[in-house]
Every structure is written in structure tokens, then in C-alpha cells.
Specification:
- It is a single chain.
- This protein is mainly alpha-helical.
- It has one domain: Neurolysin, domain 3 (Orthogonal Bundle), CATH 1.10.1370.40.
- The longest helix is centred in the last third of the chain and has 31 residues.
- The chain starts with 58 loop residues before the first helix and ends with a helix.
């Protein structure tokens, strides 16, 4: 597989009704502007866009487009009238969400290396939405039943070791994500997941702020009297 097995960190604008309440129906939305560097596949490794072409304002619309695209793909898998096979279910899920994956990975690396107030705000806004997107997929009853049908007869599918492991992981991920819960419990779980995502992001950003606030800046070597030369040189190199 060209991408890790589906477990989205990492996403929905809460525009989609959860599948346990109604059939998954992707929400309409504007197409991603051609000027957005995520709109076309880059020729760079992994098709990530050149960072010098990305503006902070590109991320939210790219996230939204990526989530809509993946939910359309998931809808097609869940409502496929053909009986579940490894290819039309597991492989299809593996191939879903390519745009969202590029956006989320790019954002995570950029924000982790060189964040700013705008990126932090996007992070806070997207965390609960990404959690909701994850729930929309993993609480999809039709999708889970297709995965479960394959897992129940895995010994007869003739899968190689890698494929067998992938199927097992998907089945476990759905169960652990709450696919077997009742409707009321799924509703509670979604609220918990959104809150956890928000709190985790807030905590992480607060820790970074405290680290930055505790930094000591000196202008002369004399102010570091008492430190050995190796420690001073290491600090200067940073």
C-alpha cells in the first residue's frame, strides 16, 4: 500500500449526518480553487506542494475539500451493492482520502516546525472537525458490516500476511472506535471525542507557549559564565 491504513486524525465540517442515523450523504461544497496549491498533484515526492507556494489561507478550504472528497469515497464503499471483497472494501478505504492526507500531513509538519497565530487558530478549529470526520467513517454501520463480513471469513480469503494483518487492524479499529455501540452511546462518544480533540490541542499549544516564554536570551558570552565551552557552543549553534 502507498499510504498507511485509514485512521484519520486525521475530519468533517459536521456537515454530514452520521451513518448510524441516516445513509451517508456527502455535503456539497465549492470546488477547491485552482490557485490553491493542494488543488493539483505536485511533482514533488509524495505529491506534497512546495511549501513556498502555500499560504495560511489555503489550509481551511483544502481541508474542507479533502474531507468532502473522502466522504464521497467512503459513501461509495459503504453503499456498494456488490458483496464485500478485500479489494472493494479494504483496498478502497486505503485509497480514500488522498487529498485530506496531503493537506493534514503538510499542515502538521509546517505547524510543528514554524507555527504562528493563524496556524494555531486553524489547528484549534480543525481538531474537533477532524475528530467528527473520523467518527463519521468509523461509526458508519454499513461500512463496519462490510469489514466485519470479511473479518469473519478471513481464513477463506487467501490473503497474504500483510493483507491479513491490514484486515485485522481495520476490524479492530472499527470496534475500538465504537462501531458496535448503541445510537445513544455513539452520540455520547462523538461529543467526548470532539472535546478530547479540543482539549489536546489547547494543552499542546499551551505547553509550547510556556516553553517559549521560559526561554532565556543573552547577548554576550559573559552572561553565560559558569557554563563550559561545549555547552555555550551548542547553545550558540541553536
Amino acid at each position: 500500500m502507498n499510504r498507511p491504513h485509514l485512521l484519520i486524525v486525521a475530519a468533517s465540517l459536521a456537515l454530514i449526518q452520521p451513518s448510524f442515523a441516516a445513509p451517508l450523504a456527502p455535503a456539497a461544497g465549492p470546488a477547491l480553487a485552482a490557485s490553491n496549491p493542494f488543488a493539483t498533484l505536485s511533482t514533488l515526492p509524495f505529491h506534497y506542494p512546495a511549501f513556498d507556494q502555500i499560504k495560511d489561507t489555503h489550509f481551511l478550504p483544502a481541508y474542507a475539500a479533502g474531507m468532502r472528497e473522502q466522504l464521497r469515497e467512503i459513501d461509495a464503499i459503504a453503499n456498494n451493492v456488490t458483496p464485500a471483497t478485500f479489494d472493494n472494501t479494504i483496498v478502497a478505504m486505503e485509497r480514500s482520502g488522498q487529498l485530506l492526507s496531503r493537506v493534514a500531513t503538510t499542515f502538521s509538519n509546517l505547524q510543528g516546525a514554524n507555527t504562528n497565530d493563524v496556524l494555531d487558530e486553524i489547528d484549534r478549529a480543525m481538531s474537533p472537525r477532524l475528530a467528527a470526520h473520523n467518527d463519521t467513517i468509523f461509526l458508519n454501520k454499513k461500512l463496519f458490516l462490510r469489514v466485519k463480513a470479511l473479518a469473519d471469513k478471513h481464513a477463506t480469503l487467501g490473503l497474504d500476511a500483510e493483507s491479513a494483518y491490514l484486515l485485522e487492524r481495520y476490524n479492530k479499529d472499527f470496534v475500538r472506535a465504537g462501531a458496535r455501540l448503541s445510537k445513544p452511546d455513539k452520540t455520547k462518544l462523538k461529543a467526548f471525542n470532539a472535546e478530547i480533540a479540543t482539549l489536546q490541542t489547547t494543552f499542546t499549544q499551551n505547553v509550547l507557549k510556556e516553553i517559549n516564554a521560559s526561554a532565556l536570551t543573552v547577548d554576550t558570552r559573559a552572561e553565560l559564565a559558569g557554563l563550559n565551552d561545549a555547552a555555550i557552543d551548542a547553545a550558540a549553534a541553536e
